[in-house]
């Protein structure tokens, strides 16, 4: 008897999947408005160039305008503050070095933003490693020399 019920349940589920109500799904696509990428470093550097490449690719993928806005200051606070003060709709993104949320809270007693409460989500889109390279002619034993 249980085999019959299992087959009947599978048949009902398959029938339900095949049924089309004819009504389109109503869903709002993200993003519905232009997106702003706030870059917390001056224009012309490596981080700015990376942000502009990412903005171009996001605009292509989303079919929506992505604006890059540079807001540079000491310890990257101006960019982080601008994003923290924006509406939490996901349309304002921060591009900044990781020190903005990792080191700055420990180095400065007052910040115009709270890295734990001001940001909703965090993601790393580009990571780089620093590497020192020299030739054999460069007679350096330590970084001090």
The helix count comes to 4
Going by CATH, the architecture of one domain would be 3-Layer(aba) Sandwich
- Envelope shape: globular
- CATH C-level class of one domain is Alpha Beta
Distance from N terminus to C terminus (CA atoms, Å) equals 85 Å
CATH topology of one domain: D-Maltodextrin-Binding Protein, domain 2
The gyration radius over C-alpha positions equals 25 Å
How many β-strand runs?
Answer: 3
Classification by helices and strands: alpha/beta
Percent helix among the residues?
25-40%
For the largest beta sheet, what order do the strands appear in spatially? Answer: 2-1-3
Strand fraction band?
A: 5-15%
Largest sheet: 3 strands, parallel
Order of helices and strands, N to C? HEHEHEH
**Oligomeric state of shown chains:** single chain
């Amino acid at each position: 008897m249980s085999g019959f019920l299992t087959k009947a349940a599978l048949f009902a589920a398959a029938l339900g999947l095949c049924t089309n109500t004819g009504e389109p799904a109503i869903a709002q696509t993200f993003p519905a408005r232009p997106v702003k990428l706030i870059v917390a470093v001056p224009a012309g550097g490596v981080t700015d160039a990376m942000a502009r490449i990412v903005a171009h690719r996001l605009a292509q993928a989303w079919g929506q305008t992505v604006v890059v806005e540079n807001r540079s200051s000491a310890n990257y606070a101006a960019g982080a503050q601008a994003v923290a003060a924006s509406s939490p709709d996901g349309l304002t993104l921060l591009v900044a070095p990781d020190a903005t949320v990792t080191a700055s809270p420990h180095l400065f007693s007052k910040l115009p933003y709270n890295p734990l409460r001001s940001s909703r989500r965090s993601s790393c889109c580009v990571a780089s490693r620093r590497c020192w390279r020299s030739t054999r002619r460069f007679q350096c034993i330590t970084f001090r020399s």
